[in-house]
Amino acid sequence: MAVENGKRTNMLSIEAALCLESGVRDNFRIDSNPYLSGFHEEEGGEVSSVRCLLLPSLLSDLEIHHVDLFVLDCEGCEKDVLISLYQRPPEKKVEVDVWLIEANHPVEIYNIMKDSHSLAACIGDHDMVWLRK
Description:
18% of the residues lie in helices and 39% in strands.
């Protein structure tokens, strides 16, 4: 990403969530603590509707077929995003060389990633680094 006059260029902002199914979900909770916001049934926070996109479709629409480094930290939706890429393969695959994933569900993340990537490192309690085989 380039920076010109203090502003990022070639940056895209999309108002949507990455989900396992495309469409609209009505159970997105917005909490005063952003780390507690997300799709869950717990009490608290304002409930909102959110447009959901599948990552493979989004990347394909943007004509992105290769990513050098993908940082995936979406407060709990990591598993769904990875399932959409690796367990429901799209017609046009996206090749990711290195993943840095916040793994709130490390065993499930491992089972999704193990065939296409090698676990290179675990950082702290939740972050995993994966390298394409």
